[in-house]
Q: What sequence folds into this?
């Protein structure tokens, strides 16, 4: 299995632990991640709000780079997955296609629409398969109750992404169960994390994130896990301000999706950058039995 690896911006900087754990899981499963240094940012939250055609062009360029290598793109960020997928769909509009081609042709880029975009969660569940995941587990996450947090862009807009129900998804929970964890169902798992307004209305964003964390906690979760590094920032890095806004203790460890997969496969916590999280993952990790020899 071979993909054009699109880590996105956060996983290369403030969220490097996501990239680290993704590479660990890829090695364990024999997935080849081909790197393309010329990939650019997906433009979410900035370019897409200012100039839709320019944002489509940026992502069509990324897709064309992968196409030239004959590879589909693997993302580890729900937001990047959303931007790349939506750009691919927008390019089916002849008017948009003409404008984007006009921007790409002068720089020697040709977009053909032959590469697909898929998130790591979908690769694990659909292409690797849950049976193969179970076979790799050396340290079952039994005893750990985990609330999956899908966020927005992995599931929406549902009519364009055409994957799971944006209201009642199950792929993440299926994966957690295959790893031996107990999935926790709660309403907030498919809600927004608040990140899109963090820098405009921080108090509102904090209340949104805090509400989702509290929802998971009240339903019995020991930890949360997310497939999006922007959601991780909201839920982990901004958890302390959220506690103050809600005037409620939270203390909720928040894992990146591949960190839990790697832990179940036998990785040591120090191999996965868990020390980089602002909310300690120690109490959650302590619930997991040692890996089998």
A:
């Amino acid at each position: 299995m071979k993909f054009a690896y699109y880590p996105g911006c956060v996983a290369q900087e403030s969220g490097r632990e996501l990239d680290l754990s993704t590479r660990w899981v890829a090695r364990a499963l024999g997935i080849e991640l081909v790197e393309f240094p010329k990939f650019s940012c997906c433009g979410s939250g900035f370019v897409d709000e200012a100039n839709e055609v320019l944002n489509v062009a940026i992502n069509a360029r990324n897709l064309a780079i992968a196409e030239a290598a004959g590879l589909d793109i693997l993302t580890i960020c729900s937001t990047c997955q959303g931007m790349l997928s939506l750009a691919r769909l927008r390019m089916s509009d002849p008017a948009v296609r003409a404008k984007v081609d006009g921007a790409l042709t002068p720089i020697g880029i040709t977009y053909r629409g032959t590469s697909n975009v898929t998130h790591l969660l979908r690769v694990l569940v659909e292409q690797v398969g849950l049976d193969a995941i179970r076979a790799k587990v050396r340290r079952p996450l039994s005893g750990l109750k985990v609330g999956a947090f899908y966020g927005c862009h992995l599931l929406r807009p549902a009519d364009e992404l055409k994957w799971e129900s944006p209201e009642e998804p199950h792929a993440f929970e299926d994966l957690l169960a295959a790893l031996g964890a107990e999935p926790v169902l709660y309403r907030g798992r498919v809600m927004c994390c608040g990140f899109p307004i963090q820098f405009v209305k921080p108090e509102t964003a904090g209340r949104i994130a805090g509400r989702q964390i509290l929802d998971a906690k009240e339903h019995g979760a020991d930890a949360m896990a997310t497939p999006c590094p922007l959601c991780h920032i909201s839920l982990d890095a901004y958890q302390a301000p959220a506690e103050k806004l809600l005037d409620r203790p939270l203390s909720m460890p928040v894992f990146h999706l591949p960190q839990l997969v790697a832990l179940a496969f036998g990785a040591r916590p120090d191999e996965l950058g868990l020390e980089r999280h602002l909310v300690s993952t120690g109490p959650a990790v302590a619930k997991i039995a040692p890996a089998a020899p």
